[in-house]
Request: fold
Amino acid sequence: MEPAVTGRGPSPDRPLLAAAVAGEARGTIEVAGRRTGAAELLTAASAVADRIAGAATVAVHATPTPETVAAVLGCLLAGAAAVPVPPDAGPVERAHVLRDSAATLLLDPGGGVALPGVPVVPVDLRARSSTSWPEQPAAGTALVVYTSGTTGPPKGAVLSRAALAADLDALAAAWAWTPDDTLVHGLPLFHVHGLVLGVLGALRVGSALRHTGRPDPAAYAAAARAGGTLFFGVPTVWSRLAAAPSTASALRGARLLVSGSAALPAQVFARVEELTGHRIVERYGTTETLITVSARADGERRPGQVGTPLDGVTTRLVATDGTGADVPRDGRSMGELWVRGATLFDGYLGPGGRVRPAVDPDGWYRTGDVAVIDPDGWHRIVGRASTDLLDCGGFRIGAGEVEDAVRAHPAVREVAVVGLPDPDLGQRPVAYVVADGVTEAELVAFVAGTLSVHKRPREVRFVDALPRNALGKVLKHELAAGTAGS
Ligand code: AMP
Reply:
């Protein structure tokens, strides 16, 4: 399916911050309630670039502030790799990121971060500079984003300017994103979703941006009333909106609602449609590949499915048994999703600053996600191969399918299914549930009445809350390790 190409269309050779640098950005950038024009922001960024000139790698204490935006832009102007550090990172995590990335400076938007051994540079939005920075080579590193794998400390994914540009152009085409839009979100600025799509996307396209601080329904509704058109959220944001009917209706006037970073429950999709009239566009990607698959602004949206590959991205579905065999795209067969294209990272940062490529000789990156692809190319993400594909008595069960079935019970607010070791079955599906007024037996019987009986949870553990990361993603490894609730 050909996505609609609007405006300029994909042209990754354009400078990364094209619209902003060319002075074409029409809208204002508002973060933490403070508004600046793109040109003003670039002048402040230029002053940051002056202060860090010559540094190869610079960490940014990534608070949700306009100073963080200026800090990252300053790195991009000066050609330094920016390493966003979560502001709530504990001392061990922060020290790991700084050591592993070999950052020689830390840009601190708020002031107050003290670090032994790494000079801290404050960021002042009022600072001005007249330095004219040339566009940096497209192959240069734009960002090193730390991502947690299943084992070991977080790894630095090295993302080039060209990969960012390719992804943002493909997304602008897929979502018909233009300078007329006002992008609204309240996502963290240390992750791909909030920083790359949510900030650099607006500056590349030239749209206005309103960062709401926190991604809560009232803030999204206020932004919608103020003219917001394009709204980004993770599934927890949309599920909170679905639970706030009087607030949600303010989003009726929006142009497009986008969800990603984790699976959007079909019930939330349906409820948001009832309340706002919008069928949410889902998108799928990883820190390493950026966004690779999405529904389109001018196309169909299917609950539970994430769409088709973006311009320039190809996907493969491959058997998980190690044979490397292709799995049929028949809407039923599960396989590991492999992706190839211009949006991929260069590799993980290794010792001595060396970048370890993570694609095979043909350019394929193994996502570690299990997916199903329909004959017409629509992708459904089953989940992580490591935690969401359960081997239960010889049956392969997708945790997401069981979660959807449990969530359909009216008493259930949240659920996560994991496979726990079982001497008889290999793994038994255990549902961690946040609910009021329902028993384990009732829930098991409810699911057995919806799905094949072998897919029912063998055990239900009621908890007060599910462990989640900053983006609202459930930390299944904590559940599987038994370190969270029981
Ligand atoms: P991260 O690198 O932190 O962005 O996490 C990427 C992972 O999030 C992917 O490998 C998927 O497991 C998951 N993910 C991202 N988007 C979606 C989506 N739309 N549906 C289901 N899972 C998703």
Observations:
- Residues 1-9 have pLDDT under 50 and may be disordered.
